């Protein structure tokens, strides 16, 4: 079989999750365990953990799916208008038709308008918008375009350690070279330009670094990069001739005071034409996170800036082979970027629901950081944004040795024991990358507040017990 | 200096620095002729005068876009799943509600918005397995061998990806028909695998000839390592429905020559011609006994985009893998996990496709009527298309036995061929472009699918509503006669 595929790893759905699923089956069969349910805090799946969908979105989706409902007076007028507009731009007025490969025209226009509003009026060209099957699809497509060369000229892709393992998996599958740059754990996981420089210099000895990927707000780390940092990254990319990929799927998930989301596009253009007419940038967004949590719909888009016109034609050709992204996901993205406005019937409910989701997440981010930091041997950076905490865990020497004897990464050993003893499923830090000799786990902050408290306390208990056991 | 006075700097990503395999990819179904068609539509909207008032897009198998109606039951269930408040609404029949509840129970948090497992919602895979068992006369299907996918295309590319390895003379070769649906050639180009073309027999209704398979294989062994054999049945673009004998022969051939079989069966309900019947590769394989059924590695593909559903936009699909090495299967599961999961609305749709209303259920009558009407209409249009085209001197159309297309052969005058070549255009592209500009009909030239050297074809869908189809066919007849005269 394909040798590159064998090198692919994706820890978020890896061995520990497979074991968790097995345990769930055992529980169902009545096998006795020290717990009654498995808590899947391994994946950023908001609805699975009880978050409710936004009513307005689902109303419009139902109307698009079964247009007979347009006669039903149960639906507010603004949902019907949105649905009619979407259906009018679908072939045969049906979301069952293929769309153009770049995505429904009116949706791309609405996305461009959203970006323009978000970025204080900086223009966005709908023709630079590509709708995608989740953000992952767009990310892989761009990486694919960028991968070329052989041996020492093979494309190198800069990505943070720790990172969301879609990047390492795709790099492995494409046979590109991963160029890791370490985020600074001591400084809230911030990005350090001198570290970028170090990684780049080292990489140039064995590959051709051409891309710099950054996830902001960060996954798994939750850091929200400062505006200064974003400018520095842009300057660095310009200087070093790097294509910038900005993964911004958590752009509404910002909790910490003093933190703000700054889109790479906005900052780039505010830096003036010396940069904005030169730096090649692709920014990614999705319907899976933020306050929507509509992971299953696989909605997403990317905006490409300063892409060579011929390459753009190649990009359009490439995405045409898969025909189009799912039309329901495109429709949903339309609603996300074109949500109820003040004065519209659904506005109040929409704002209430949106605010409730985001503030619950902010509370849980805080709660998580607080509780974890009361545990000796666990050190948790502030969860400034996104949906995860990535605390550092101190493991006793004996535990590390036992893990190694088993051929297991020490944090996998820890997480497996946690799973077997408490039913809590997390992902070991080794799945995301970390400095050697350090250990972490990634946990989502998504379970409902009460369950989250219970979970965090069980974790605390477990960690203390584990530390004692292996002293 | 650039326009805004900034220093010129070569971009990072250029034609020279980009992935060379991507440059080799072609996908004619959405290629240059379609781009021109879209441009013309814009010009019409702007009020530019043309010899026609609308562009008829008969280039792509997009049923709903051409007026086919969705199946009511399916859309009711999906609406209920999208907005479960509607479960209180008495407008919806009980069977739609119970399907929706069942689906939602199998979703995380009772929501279509949750990720599903990467292989696809377990309950849906179980329903798919039962569907396959019913279809194949009881032959067992293991839900664990079912992988839901983002349309059939996704699964096809995933399998090809797994199969591609080696370098130079040991590089994976993949056998695919000429003509073929250009997803295959595009995927092979992108993966850097070797395409091994085997010609279907136009003089015998596009049937598959084992001798031709053998010939192509022998040739290919000299420069690559042939490892897979792809077959599309019912065929795209050709519409042929392979006989059971032929399917047995292909299986025997694959067994002998140690080839992984990929059976693209997305048109399995689209069978029109008398005497033709869909035989699934899985069924025939197992009916051939253990000597084959335990050995031949097979992946079969299906989709929600075609048949009577036409739900292309939902990107629903599945594949069934048979006799896949268990360790490779683990790799497959791992590979699909990176993309998390296929779209859940598409998975839900697939579930109702494989568990449609039963005779004792409230929605049954309406469902059967809609399904029958759609398939009967397609059958009529298939027949009509073949008849009308065969009346045109210089156009020869094989029976459209199944699928959704016709792939007639067109005779082009030497002068036209000459002019095309001078323009650097494939002669059938030249023909189709003129047809588009003069009549507003968008077809795909045969060169986009492959054909024997010196022959020319086009692919046209049979999807436009009957009355419009008649008009389209009449215009093609006119155009062809005029074209032939013009270039005599």
Automatic annotation (TrEMBL), chain A:
Coiled coil: none annotated. Gene3D superfamilies: 1.10.287.1970, Aspartate Aminotransferase, domain 1, Type I PLP-dependent aspartate aminotransferase-like (Major domain). Its EC number is 2.6.1.2. Transmembrane segments: none annotated. It comes from the Eukaryota. Keywords: Aminotransferase, Pyridoxal phosphate, Transferase. Its cofactor is pyridoxal 5'-phosphate. Pathway: Amino-acid degradation; L-alanine degradation via transaminase pathway; pyruvate from L-alanine: step 1/1. It catalyses: L-alanine + 2-oxoglutarate = pyruvate + L-glutamate. Residues 60-457 form the Aminotransferase class I/classII large domain. PANTHER family: ALANINE AMINOTRANSFERASE, ALANINE AMINOTRANSFERASE 1. Belongs to the class-I pyridoxal-phosphate-dependent aminotransferase family. Alanine aminotransferase subfamily. Homodimer. This is alanine transaminase. The lineage of its organism: Eukaryota, Metazoa, Chordata, Craniata, Vertebrata.
Automatic annotation (TrEMBL), chain B:
It is an enzyme of class 2 (transferase). Its EC number is 2.6.1.2. One of its GO terms (molecular function) is pyridoxal phosphate binding. It comes from the Eukaryota. One of its GO terms (cellular component) is extracellular space. The keyword Nucleotide-binding does not apply. Gene3D superfamilies: 1.10.287.1970, Aspartate Aminotransferase, domain 1, Type I PLP-dependent aspartate aminotransferase-like (Major domain). SUPFAM superfamilies: PLP-dependent transferases (SSF53383). Its main location: cytoplasm. Its cofactor is pyridoxal 5'-phosphate. Transmembrane segments: none annotated. Pathway: Amino-acid degradation; L-alanine degradation via transaminase pathway; pyruvate from L-alanine: step 1/1. It is found in: Cytoplasm. Keywords: Acetylation, Aminotransferase, Cytoplasm, Phosphoprotein, Pyridoxal phosphate, Transferase. InterPro entries: ALAT1/2-like, Aminotransferase_I/II_large, PyrdxlP-dep_Trfase, PyrdxlP-dep_Trfase_major, PyrdxlP-dep_Trfase_small. Catalyzes the reversible transamination between alanine and 2-oxoglutarate to form pyruvate and glutamate. Participates in cellular nitrogen metabolism and also in liver gluconeogenesis starting with precursors transported from skeletal muscles. Belongs to the class-I pyridoxal-phosphate-dependent aminotransferase family. Alanine aminotransferase subfamily. This is Alanine aminotransferase 1. It comes from Cirrhinus molitorella (mud carp).
């Amino acid at each position: 079989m394909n040798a590159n595929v064998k090198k692919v790893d994706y820890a978020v759905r890896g061995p520990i999750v497979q074991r968790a699923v097995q345990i769930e089956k055992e529980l169902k069969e009545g096998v006795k365990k020290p717990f009654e349910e498995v808590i899947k805090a391994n994946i950023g799946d908001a609805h699975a953990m009880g978050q409710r969908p936004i009513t307005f979105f689902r109303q419009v989706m139902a109307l698009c799916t079964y247009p007979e409902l347009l006669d039903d007076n149960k639906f507010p007028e603004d949902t019907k208008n949105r649905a009619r507009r979407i259906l009018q731009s679908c072939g045969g007025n049906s979301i069952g038709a293929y769309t153009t490969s770049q995505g429904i025209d009116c949706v791309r226009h609405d996305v461009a308008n959203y970006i323009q509003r978000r970025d204080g009026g900086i223009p966005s060209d709908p023709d630079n918008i590509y709708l995608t099957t989740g953000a992952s699809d767009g990310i892989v497509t761009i990486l694919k375009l960028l991968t070329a060369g052989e041996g020492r000229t093979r494309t190198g892709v800069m990505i943070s350690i720790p990172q969301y393992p879609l990047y390492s998996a795709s790099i492995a599958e494409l046979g590109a070279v991963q160029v890791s740059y370490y985020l600074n754990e001591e400084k809230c996981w911030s990005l350090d330009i001198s570290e970028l420089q170090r990684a780049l210099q080292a990489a140039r000895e064995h590959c051709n670094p051409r891309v710099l990927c950054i996830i902001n707000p960060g996954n798994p780390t939750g850091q929200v990069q400062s505006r200064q940092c974003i400018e520095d990254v842009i300057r660095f990319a310009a200087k070093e001739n790097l294509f910038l990929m900005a993964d911004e799927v958590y752009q509404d998930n910002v909790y910490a005071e003093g933190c703000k989301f700054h889109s790479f596009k906005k900052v780039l253009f505010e830096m003036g034409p010396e940069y904005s007419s030169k730096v090649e940038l692709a920014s990614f967004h999705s319907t899976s996170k933020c306050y929507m949590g509509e992971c299953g719909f696989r909605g997403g888009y990317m905006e490409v800036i300063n892409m060579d016109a011929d390459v753009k034609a190649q990009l359009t050709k490439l995405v045409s082979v898969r025909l189009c992204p799912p039309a329901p996901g495109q429709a949903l993205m339309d609603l996300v970027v074109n949500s109820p406005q003040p004065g519209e019937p659904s506005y109040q409910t929409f704002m209430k629901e949106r605010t409730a989701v985001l503030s619950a997440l902010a509370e849980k981010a805080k709660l998580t950081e607080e509780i974890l930091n009361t545990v000796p041997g666990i050190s948790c950076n502030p969860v400034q944004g996104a949906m995860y905490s990535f605390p550092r865990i101190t493991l006793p020497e004996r535990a590390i040795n036992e893990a190694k004897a088993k051929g297991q990464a020490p944090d996998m050993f820890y997480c497996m024991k946690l799973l077997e003893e408490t039913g809590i499923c997390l992902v070991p830090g080794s799945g995301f990358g970390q400095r050697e000799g350090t250990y972490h786990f990634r946990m989502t902050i998504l379970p409902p507040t009460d369950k989250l408290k219970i979970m965090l306390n069980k974790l605390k208990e477990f960690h203390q017990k584990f530390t004692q056991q292996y002293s | 200096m650039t326009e805004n006075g900034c220093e010129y700097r070569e971009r990072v990503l250029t034609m020279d620095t980009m992935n060379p395999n991507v440059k080799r990819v072609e996908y004619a179904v959405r290629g240059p002729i379609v781009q021109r068609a879209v441009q013309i539509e814009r010009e019409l909207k702007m009020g530019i005068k043309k010899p026609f008032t609308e562009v008829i897009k008969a280039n792509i198998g997009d049923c709903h876009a051409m007026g086919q109606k969705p199946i009511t039951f399916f859309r009711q269930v999906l609406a209920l799943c999208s907005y479960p408040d509607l479960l209180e609404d008495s407008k919806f029949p009980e069977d739609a509600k119970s399907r929706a509840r069942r689906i939602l129970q199998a979703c995380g948090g009772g929501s279509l918005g949750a990720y599903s497992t990467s292989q696809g919602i377990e309950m849906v895979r179980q329903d798919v397995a039962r569907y396959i068992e019913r279809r194949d006369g009881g032959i067992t299907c293991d839900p664990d061998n079912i992988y839901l996918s983002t349309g059939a295309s996704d699964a096809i590319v995933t399998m090809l990806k797994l199969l591609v390895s080696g370098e130079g003379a040991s590089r994976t070769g993949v056998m695919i028909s000429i003509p073929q649906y250009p997803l295959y050639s595009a995927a092979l180009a992108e993966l850097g695998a070797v395409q091994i073309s085997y010609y279907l027999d136009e003089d015998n209704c596009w049937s598959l000839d084992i001798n031709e398979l053998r010939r192509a294989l022998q040739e290919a062994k000299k420069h690559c390592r042939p490892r897979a054999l792809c077959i599309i049945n019912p065929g795209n673009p050709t519409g042929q429905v392979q006989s059971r004998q032929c399917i047995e022969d292909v299986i025997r051939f694959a067994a002998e020559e140690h080839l992984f079989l990929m059976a693209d069966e997305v048109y399995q309900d689209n069978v029109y011609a008398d005497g033709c019947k869909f035989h699934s590769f899985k069924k025939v394989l197992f009916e051939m006994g253990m000597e084959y059924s335990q050995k031949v590695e097979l992946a079969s593909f299906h989709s929600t985009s075609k048949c009577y559903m036409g739900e292309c936009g939902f990107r629903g699909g599945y594949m069934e893998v048979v006799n896949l090495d268990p360790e490779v299967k683990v790799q497959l599961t791992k590979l699909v996990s990176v993309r998390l999961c296929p779209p859940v609305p598409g998975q839900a749709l697939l579930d109702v496709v494989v568990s449609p209303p039963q005779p004792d259920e409230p929605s049954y009558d309406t469902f059967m009527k809609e399904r029958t009407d759609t398939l009967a209409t397609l059958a009529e249009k298939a027949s009509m298309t073949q008849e009308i085209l065969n009346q045109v001197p210089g156009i020869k159309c094989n029976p459209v036995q199944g699928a959704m297309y016709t792939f007639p052969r067109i005779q082009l005058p030497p002068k036209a061929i000459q002019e095309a070549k001078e323009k650097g255009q494939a002669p059938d592209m030249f023909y189709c472009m003129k047809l588009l500009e003069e009549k507003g009909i968008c077809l795909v030239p045969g060169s986009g699918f492959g054909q024997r050297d010196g022959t020319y074809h086009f692919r046209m869908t049979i999807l436009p509503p009957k009355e419009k189809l008649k008009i389209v066919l009449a215009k093609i007849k006119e155009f062809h006669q005029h074209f032939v005269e013009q270039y005599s």
